[in-house]
Amino acid sequence: MATAVVAALLAPTAAQARPAGPEAGRDGIPALTDSRGRALTLRGWNLADKSHSGDQALSGITERHFRDMRAKGFNFARLVVFWDDLEPRPGQYSQSYLRKVDRILGWAEKYDVKVVLDAHQDVFGPAFGHRGIPAWATRTDGLPFTPHPDDWFSEYFEPAVQRAFTHLYEDADLRRAQARMWRVLAERFRDHPAVLGYDPINEPMGELREGEDLATGARRIEREHLTPMYNRIADAIRAVDKDGWIFVEPTPIVGEGVPTGLGRIDDPKIVYAPHFYNGAMEAGGDYDPSARWIENYEAAVTLYPKQYKVPVVVGEWGPLNNSQPNMNRFYREAMASLGRYSSGWAGWEWCYGGGYCAVDSAGAFRTNKELTAEPYAEAVAGTVRSSSYDPGSGFYRLAYDAGGRHASRVTELSLPPGAWQVAARGQAVVLRTERGRALVLAAPGARVTVTVTRG
Predict the structure, then answer these.
(1) Cβ atoms within 10 A of the Cβ of 363, count?
(2) 56 in Cβ contact with 24 (< 8 Å)
(3) What share of the chain is helix, strand, coil (3-state, %, to 5)?
(4) Measured CA distances, 396 to 85, 159, 385, 413 (Å)
(5) Would you call 195 helix, strand, or coil by DSSP?
């Protein structure tokens, strides 16, 4: 999550905007797929409990979270887990913590929510008053650290924090420890039906060199440190799990429209998982359409998946103050943009209250957050030709070519709360199964059009 200071630093290097047509960003970007080869769309939220650790770890996440998300049409959760809770001492993995993760995954399975396990860090970890990488794996060479309680993101640029990232990336024993931690997680949950994949590290940062501007430094860190790290972790996961998707993140600097320097990850099931934050909005400001931030971001963020032919799932997004005057426009334009190039997203975050929370204490959407709940195709049994939704009229349209005789034939639709009419043309039939869900059964090779209408 970037700050206004970061935005200002990056302004001269932001990517140029380009027009965004109905299919902008899709060319050359493959879809995320399930085990049956169906094209997936993930819509959901992050689930995080940063307040509790040790014996109370994860106690803030309950079955209600999954029940309420699914009831509003969401099928995806990015579950925040902490290395410092999993491995409080070197080589000693908490079986209690693993059982708590397993219990949460059981709720996800019950409500048919797919989960990505995210090894989260904020400002590296407990050594700096946050969560993430254990204190025993934090090496600072005695460099100073000064807290910034009013702007925690600025703490990433403290010398001690920057040096800690360098040691994590370069020290052989810390590299092995991080890989072992991921092997433990993947081995434990590789067969769990709710687990879609793994996010090796949240919002990775690194150490800037003297005289290096932020955008240049971020691309170097992505190229020289993050790329080999992701390859190491992918190898560790593949030693025990051949099927889970691996969600790789650039630095959060991409949020300001800066193309990533991340290189190729040599694995067949990689997902590019950038975050979608604007510095001014992170500071509580309003959306400024004239700044063309969404257009700049989309132009920059689609370069990597086009080059390396990997799907995109945006791992975090959503403003701090969603009730500002222009936020209704922001949500409409952001949802349209995300739909053009990504296989889905997880908003920050599903919680009951204020700030970033999606819903209030009663479970009702907070102002403008209701615009994240749309009809969409969770799984398409075929090749998507186009999809679109008009939030004003409440009209959704999906066009796809059904798979061949031996392919899956069932397409799954998710419908948010309310009355919806579903129809299909082209050798296809609609099977309404339950409130909020619909199935479309198509003949092999059929050219299908599905429409969903409010009311």
Answers:
(1) 13
(2) no
(3) 35, 20, 45
(4) 43, 50, 14, 11
(5) strand
* Rounded average pLDDT over 120-130: 98
String of DSSP letters for 305-337: HHHHT--B-B-EE--S-TTSTTHHHHHHHHHHH
Q: Residue 129 corresponds to which tokens in the numbers above?
A: 């008053």
| The residue to which tokens 């040599």 are assigned | 266
Q: Say which residue the tokens 């599903």 belong to.
A: 350
Alpha-carbon gap, residue 431 to 79, rounded angstroms: 32
User: E-assigned strands of 230-313?
Assistant: 245-248, 270-272, 275-276
CA dist 346 and 115 (Å) reads 10
**Mean pLDDT confidence for 165-194:** 98
Q: What is the DSSP letter of 38?
A: P
Residue 450 structure tokens: 């599905």
Could you give the CA distance from residue 16 to residue 46 in angstroms, rounded to a whole number? 30
Work out the average pLDDT over 376-386.
Answer: 97
Distance CA 442, CA 379 (A): 13
- Residue 434 is encoded by which pair of tokens? 């339950």
Question: Nearest to residue 260, comparing CAs of 275, 271, 250, 268?
Answer: 250
CA end-to-end span of the chain? 38
CA triplet 412, 398, 248: central angle to 5 degrees? Answer: 70
Candidates 435, 325, 424; CA nearest to 381 is 424
Question: CB–CB of 73/65 below 8 Å?
Answer: no
What is the C-alpha to C-alpha distance for residues 51 and 208, in angstroms, rounded to an integer? 30
What is the 3 state secondary structure string of 5-40? HHHHHHHHHCCCCCCCCCCCCCCCCCCCECCCCCEE
Interval 21-46 mean pLDDT = 82
At residue 425, what are phi and psi to the nearest 5 degrees? Answer: -125, 145
User: Residues 427-434: contacts with CB within 8 Å, 24+ apart?
Assistant: 427/402, 428/402
Does pLDDT of 412 surpass 60?
A: yes
pLDDT at 432: 78
Rounded to two decimals, the pTM is 0.94
Q: Across-strand partners of 76?
A: 44, 114
